[in-house]
Design a protein that fits this description.
This protein is mainly α. It has helices spanning about 5-20, 25-35, 40-55, 65-85, 95-110, 115-130, 135-145, 150-160, 160-185. Keywords: DNA-binding, Sigma factor, Transcription, Transcription regulation.
């Protein structure tokens, strides 16, 4: 048995590299926003790239490769989430020990502590507010406001009517606005 690739396999790899690979960085950022963890985002991206290559024959040349790839990432994320939600939570002792050591070392590091505290607190609050949005609202919000996809592209990726995209965006933005307003009130920027 020969290990040499056929011309058809070589052509598929070249086409895949030309169409899909330019979107890898943006796709990783999207995966990161979905998973909120760099390691999980890398795993999701790798899984999605394998699926994209496997089913590349179904991709229609000349269409939006990034949207096609994002749809694969979203579907993979949903499938992984469903699978994980059926399993009991797992704790890795090494991670807990590392986390504990990190906390101890940060507590003894006093250089610019106040600036670090406020920077992380505000970033964390906004990220938490975004992460607390229901998935149905967060995903269209990220795709539209962060990734700059059109309503039509989002509707195709999420497999919902364009009117649903519009209503989810409106509702998601309203929910996020309320959460941010609550944060601002807690910080004393807005009066009750």
């Amino acid at each position: 048995m020969s290990n040499r690739l056929t011309e058809e396999e070589i052509k598929k790899q070249e086409d895949f590299n030309a169409e899909i690979m330019p979107h890898i960085d943006a796709t990783y950022n999207y995966a990161l926003r979905l998973t909120t963890d760099p390691n999980d985002a890398e795993d999701l991206l790798q899984d999605s790239i394998v699926k994209a290559f496997r089913f590349f024959n179904s991709f229609q040349k000349g269409t939006n490769a990034r949207a096609w790839l994002y749809r694969i990432v979203k579907n993979s994320y949903i499938n992984n989430y469903r699978k994980a939600s059926r399993q009991p939570p797992k704790v890795d002792y090494d991670e807990v020990a590392t986390y504990y050591e990190t906390i101890r070392s940060e507590q003894s590091d006093t250089t610019d502590l106040q600036a670090r505290f406020y920077r992380s607190e505000y970033d964390d609050d906004f990220k938490k507010a975004l992460d607390e949005l229901p998935e149905d609202f967060r995903t269209p919000l990220l795709l539209c406001d962060v990734e700059d996809f059109t309503y039509e592209e989002i509707a195709n990726m999420l497999d919902v009517p364009i009117g649903t995209v519009r209503s989810r965006l409106h509702r998601g933005r309203s929910l996020l606005k309320e959460k941010i307003k609550d944060i601002a009130k807690k910080r004393g920027y807005l009066k009750n």
